[in-house]
Design a protein that fits this description.
Layout (H helix, E strand, L loop, with lengths): L7 H11 L1 H6 L2 H16 L1 H7 L5 H35 L1
């Protein structure tokens, strides 16, 4: 019988476990941030599994970058909306 190739989710869990000592050395607030970064990677594990990249960390970094880009765009949109409200109040 052939060996089963681990899924990307399995590989991601192994990577997260590997980074466990680093996480434990972080301050409590940073541990929560660290956990969120891996949550971003888990949220995009389906796409990463299709990639089948030789370096399993590459999709992790891309997932984190994509989520941060999404959050930046959302914040920029909120800032623009608030600025337009302020401008409307100033013109009144």
């Amino acid at each position: 019988m052939g060996r089963t190739t681990p899924t990307y989710r399995d590989r991601l869990t192994a990577i997260e476990d590997e980074w466990g000592p680093f996480r434990r050395a972080l301050r409590r607030g940073d541990q929560a941030r660290f956990d969120r970064l891996f949550a971003y990677a888990r949220d995009r594990a389906d796409a990463a599994g299709h990639l089948n990249h030789a370096d399993p960390l590459a999709p992790v970094w891309m997932a984190i970058a994509l989520e941060q880009e999404r959050r930046i765009a959302e914040l920029e949109s909120r800032i623009a909306e608030l600025e337009s409200r302020v401008d409307a109040l100033a013109d009144a």
